[in-house]
User: Fold these one by one.
Assistant:
Number 1:
Amino acid sequence: MLVLKCLSDETGDDAGDIVTQGFVDVDDREFVNIVNRLEGYFDCTLSLRSEPGRRFVVRDLVARVTAAITRCSPEADHV
């Protein structure tokens, strides 16, 4: 939900519309703002700045955030 909120807040698109479409296209400024916001929310690096496209596919973005949280989690160091 936080990923959708971030996408919606930055682009102004309705979160329901983003879910229905499955992706959101953004300009360079929105891209950087979204990445910065998500990395700040989850205190992890998503390594997205070098990605060539400016389209966030919701499913892929959620998977990337989930993987980053797992890598950054202190509990992951003890597994």
Number 2:
Amino acid sequence: MQDPRFSKEDIMDFDVKWETAKFDQHLAKDTTVRDGWKSVSVDISVPNGKEHASEVDAPVFSVPGLFYRPLIEVIKAAVQDIGDRCFHYTPFKQFWTPSPGSPPQRIYDQIYLSDAMVEAHTALQNQPREPNCTLERVILSMMFWSDSTHLASFGDASLWPLYLFFRNQSKWLRVKPRSNVCHHVAYFPKVCPFFFMSFSWCSLSKLISVAR
């Protein structure tokens, strides 16, 4: 508002509450972005200390508010990004010769240098191709991490995210926060207090340990 080009006449009809409500309505709609966030409820079969003929007969508790991003769309967005230049799609074996005449030593410092990746890549190349498909076939190795994250220095506000890393990228790149190679794919909700009220027959301390 201190800019000399600002004119108070431009905001004479501006209503903060009205504009904020419009933002809220927009955010409440389902996103059209393919790798955007979605919300679903998850039904969980909960043991109640009784024997049942089948798991489908066990009590079911619905946990709302699981936010997630479609995994296939996250993968597409990641490999199409400019950072894709750092992906290693062809695994290989790396050796080091300490001195002339000494036997070479195998180096294991990246996932894409491992026997598991090399063998998986070879097995994929040996499979019959899809009819009329000439695309390159590669192994995309993924690893997931999850742990509770505190949101503030004081208080107990927290989230429980699920992270995705691609092991086709160097570990030296993955450890750099500014490299932006960590993908958030889900946020796990906490079980509401009604859950514990519904299953009060169980020892509360034991129930809490498995109800995160």
Number 3:
Amino acid sequence: MGTAALQAALMCIGFSLAGVPQVVLLGFAGFFFASLQLSCGIVWVPVVIWLFLEGRTGWAIFNLVWGVGVVGLVDNFTKPYLISRGSNLPFGIIFLGVIGGFLAYGFLGIFFGATLMAVAFRLFKEWLAG
């Protein structure tokens, strides 16, 4: 939920800068889709298209870059951080597990990858100590 709220807030910032109406409603829609593990792109892509059709090309390009480069990527960094916060594992191990699991197995790989990396790291530490 934390990453969904952060994505929705960042999306709202981009929309506010561009002068898009109904920013709060769009933010709630983005939060809804992000909390369902769907992309906020379901909300910001139509807004970018609307901005292009309105002739506001500069703001459309800004929101496209903002949506892909900031809103879309924030999930890749905040989710591993939030997962590793409650454990004594290094952030890098969790990050590699989340990204590698996602690339290998999709959505479920986010959880399996981090879990497998945690188990492997713990076994490796026990092996070194033993």
Number 4:
Amino acid sequence: MATQIDAIFKKLEALTPPITSTDDPSPSPPPRITPPPLAAVPPRSHRMKLDVPRFNGD
């Protein structure tokens, strides 16, 4: 995971040479770190099954 974040930061640095805009690169990495946790959810089919009825009820 750290390698992916490192690659993202390197790409961001290449796209945005001015490191002064640290506020921009910061928000970008978090969204990429969110996908991994979601991948850990599928194994918990119990939660998925509980989420399905809730969506239908809505």
